[in-house]
Design a protein that fits this description.
By secondary structure, the chain is α+β, with helices and mostly antiparallel strands. The chain has two helices and four strands, in the order E-E-E-E-H-H. The protein is 27% helix and 36% strand. The strands form two sheets. A two-stranded antiparallel sheet has the order 1-2. Strand 1 (13-18) and strand 2 form a beta hairpin.
Length: 78
């Protein structure tokens, strides 16, 4: 399962594509994931994370160091 946000845990979800004549066929809604490098000033190193755009906003709000600390508490290797 490669399409998972490391911060929020967002994964692809299923649904229907609905045509003009209301015929429903299966489809997947993929999360908007970005591979992004952040500079962790406290440890003086670059960190690469695969995060959703919502998670990028969370990192901007909380700060990178607090987010990395939470991820390490969950057992994520960074």
């Amino acid at each position: 399962m490669a399409r998972v946000c490391q911060l929020t845990g967002k994964v692809p979800m299923g649904g229907h594509k609905v045509s003009h004549s209301n015929i429903k066929t299966k489809r997947r809604f993929l999360p908007n994931l970005q591979t992004k490098r952040f500079f962790l000033a406290e440890e003086d190193k670059w960190v690469t994370l695969k995060v959703s755009t919502e998670a990028i906003r969370t990192i901007n709000k909380k700060g990178l160091y607090n987010v990395v600390k939470e991820l390490r508490a969950k057992g994520e290797h960074i």
